[in-house]
Design goal:
106 residues, alpha+beta, two-stranded antiparallel ribbon, 2 strands, 59% helix
Length: 106
């Protein structure tokens, strides 16, 4: 969650008031406060919950804190891969644009 007043480039975030929503992640009720839409907060909580349950099923008997750490590592790994893919796509796009511009100039 972004801190209240942070901007993501979509409208004037300073006018948005922090919202609170209660979610349940891995059997624990959590009050989340953020400036994101409540439905998005719920969706993110459900995503984390599903990842933790998936890890718990695969690794029976490990403590909840280790499940949370593994889920955080898995989610972070997925984010890192997506960022790398995005960078590669942007670089390819820049190369293609440069090639296209050189062809058009000739």
């Amino acid at each position: 969650m972004k801190r209240p007043g942070s901007a993501d480039g979509a409208g004037n975030e300073k006018d948005r008031q922090p919202q609170s929503v209660q979610v349940q992640i891995f059997g624990q009720k959590c009050n989340i406060v953020g400036d994101e839409d409540i439905e998005q907060i719920k969706m993110l909580a459900e995503f984390v919950d599903s990842r933790m349950k998936e890890i718990a099923r695969q690794s029976r008997g490990i403590p909840a804190i280790k499940v949370a750490i593994l889920a955080a590592l898995n989610i972070t790994h997925d984010l890192y891969k997506a960022q790398e893919k995005s960078k590669n796509i942007a670089l390819k796009g820049e190369k293609l644009l440069s090639l296209l511009e050189s062809v058009v100039e000739d």
